[in-house]
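Below is how a single chain appears once it has passed through the pipeline. First comes the sequence as given, then the structure the pipeline wrote out for it. We keep one example in the README because the format questions we get most often are answered faster by looking than by reading.
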Amino acid sequence: VIEKKALPSKPISFQIKKANLSIERDAIINYLLPYEIYSLFLIANLKDKEFPSEYYVAKRENEIVGIAAYFPIFQSFSLFTEYSEVSKEFAHLMTKNHEIKTFLGIADCARDAYLELLKLGYKSKTDFKHVFMELDLENFHFFDSKEGKIRTVEEKDIDQVVILHRYFHHQSKDDPITEEERNKIRLSQIKYCLEIDNKIVCSAVSNGMVYKAFQILGVSTHLDYRRRGFAKAVCSYLIRYFQKQENAKNAVIFTDYDNIPALRCYHALGFKITNEYYFANF
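Resulting structure:
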């Protein structure tokens, strides 16, 4: 059962300003940390000082009441706030200052912003509502593969991983690969793949450890190699890395409501549905 909570809608007096991360980075992290599971994009990319991003802070006097961030390489923005009015205002600010192609966030925070984006003429090309799943690593079930070799992604593999990510994003595999696509893969701190006969047939990545939790992204299997348990195995190696090397306690992932193979895969690993996630492509 997905618990859908309404944000406090009582109007509050607040101001939004672009964050000076050299001064405010720690304060933003401290604000988000109690909600780590729901703001992994925001915290992980904030911890990585080399990750290209622009953060905005909503404050009521000296109290932080919301955070939003724009990631130029993805032309995307994400947010966290407990207030409807703040969520709406972030939508207006981001569309005014940036070109937005992707919007993402936990439904409780993203719902009001997305409704504002609709009013502004934005409409997702695909179903924007996704299942949000969490894994307590004490309940993690490891799977291995009897076929191929699972290893970390190397530079020579980047183009093949790009093609796999195109499957994930429903894009043509035949278009020339761009350097921008390669850089998006390189930005993921931890990357695993399964190789069969010198061909990368499955991959999964993460933008890194936050504090107690991490997020799995970009899980994709080549069309000719599906239904052989490869995604479970690659995700297992990724999870085990964080469990052993980073002492992680939790993992999260999101997927389409109608992606039954993915839901079965993640359930087998130990994930449980806990919420709803918005992932809109414009």
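The chain has eight helices and 13 strands.

See the next section for the split statistics.
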